[in-house]
Design goal:
With 418 residues, the chain is mainly α. The protein has helices at residues 3-33, 47-93, 98-113, 117-130, 138-173, 178-201, 214-227, 263-268, 271-286, 289-312, 317-320, 331-341, 343-346, 350-372, 376-388, 397-403, 409-417, and strands at residues 208-210, 233-237, 248-251, 258-262. The model has no long low-confidence stretch (mean pLDDT 89).
Length: 418
């Protein structure tokens, strides 16, 4: 075992042990609170619904522990066996041009993704179905996976060709700063995909239709005018063909912005509640949360690419991974390393990301209240959505800090009523 493998093993096992501990503490708290409905939940959950919510949380947590164990074992298998084996086979092939490197790397990454298919299937058709959320058929699930595979091949292929090409060309022009220019190009491509996604990619999986309820359309248009948020369309997405979970979101930039409502949301909430939910989403735009997140993403990505460049210039890197020496200075193993094992490091920064995400959610809640004139609609909507989605409102503090991008319902209620 090399020094790098020892460090990675320590990081992977430390993350596994910590996540197992958090799961244990959360399960202990959930079991303790299962017997009776807590005071903060009494207004929107009776005892049978509360116990169903806790049972769903227990089932998800237990399943998450199994996923975590499998993921840890697979990461170690990848580190010690699969990674050296596949790159040794590539060495025999012996071609390291832009296209061949991109194709081999893409094939490797896509192959790795397929190992999660059994877990995805179990989550959808056993766990979600057990609690009445799954509406997806086997045929639709297979169709989705085939589309995701094809889409993944295309997008991952484009990104890898772009990166390999830029590395090959820019490193000759400016060996010290090629990574800056390469990242900027990739970032612009990601922004382009964000614009492209609702127009070409999302319709591959879901049907988007104009909102037909004219009374609701008028309410949302008045809200848009009042808040100075111009939107091109108000659309309904057929989320009910896969799940009873509900949501609402905005997509696109500038004049291409669209309000998208899940059809399940329209069935679960009243007009005032839907208006409050949309006002909350508008709050994210009006308060600059989107550009702030993009700015953070940009600087984190830049740091990420600096680390890639550092590894590329580290002569020990390939030998420390037990890869053939011919791959020293090659981009492919570095990219695979960062994608496969980077999460063991970035996981520990999730509290920082979630802290700012919670802050933005609180601000968007307050914006929704100021836009609609009352907190009643938003709180009522949040309570209904919590009940319908069986969202557990009282997780252990560490769960909230490390895993949840949104504050709990009691926290949001407190923020609105302080």
């Amino acid at each position: 075992m090399t020094t790098l493998q020892e460090i990675l093993t320590l990081l992977i096992l430390t993350k596994f042990i910590f996540e197992s501990l958090v799961s244990f503490l959360n399960l202990k708290k959930v079991h303790q609170q299962k017997v009776s409905v807590p005071n903060c939940v009494e207004g929107y959950m009776d005892l049978p619904l509360w116990q169903k919510c806790t049972n769903y949380t227990i089932a998800k947590t237990n399943y998450g522990r199994i996923e975590n164990l499998i993921s840890t074992i697979f990461s170690l298998f990848l580190l010690f066996f699969l990674l050296p084996f596949l790159y040794s086979k590539w060495e025999v092939w012996g071609s390291f041009g832009v296209w061949s490197s991109s194709i081999y790397t893409a094939s490797f990454l896509i192959l790795i993704q397929q190992f999660s298919l059994p877990l995805d299937w179990y989550r959808q058709f056993k766990l979600e179905q057990r609690f009445g959320f799954n509406k997806q058929t086997i045929k639709l699930w297979i169709s989705d996976k085939i589309k995701e595979l094809v889409l993944g091949v295309v997008l991952i292929g484009i990104v890898l060709v772009l990166l390999h090409f830029l590395y090959a060309k820019l490193s000759l022009l400016t060996s010290e700063y090629w990574w800056v220019l390469a990242f900027v190009a990739l970032f612009l491509f990601q922004l382009f995909l964000m614009v492209l996604w609702p127009r070409l990619i999302l319709p591959l999986f879901n049907k988007l239709t104009p909102l037909e309820d004219q009374e609701l359309v008028e309410k949302l248009q008045k809200l848009s005018q009042k808040t100075g948020f111009q939107t091109k369309e108000i659309l309904v997405i057929d989320g009910s063909k896969r799940s009873t979970h509900s949501n609402a979101f905005f997509t696109g930039f500038g004049k291409f912005r669209k309000i998208v409502l899940f059809d399940t949301l329209l069935k679960q909430l009243s007009y005032d509640e839907i208006t409050s939910v949309v006002a909350h989403e508008i709050g994210h735009y009006k308060m600059g949360h989107i550009p702030k997140r993009l700015a953070i993403s940009f600087f984190m990505g830049l740091l990420y690419f600096w680390f890639i460049d550092w590894l590329l210039n580290s002569a020990w890197f390939t030998s420390e991974l037990n890869l053939p020496k011919v791959f020293a200075g090659e981009l492919s193993p570095v990219l695979v390393f960062m994608i496969m094992f980077g999460g063991s490091i970035t996981f520990w920064s999730s509290p920082i990301s979630n802290f700012f995400s919670h802050k933005h959610e609180y601000e968007a809640d307050l914006f929704a209240v100021s836009s609609t004139g009352s907190a009643d609609g938003l709180l009522s909507a949040l309570k209904k959505l919590s009940s319908e989605n069986l969202s557990y409102p009282l997780p252990h503090r560490l769960v909230s800090v490390f895993y949840q991008s949104h504050p709990s319902l009691p926290q949001r209620d407190m923020n609105l009523n302080r």
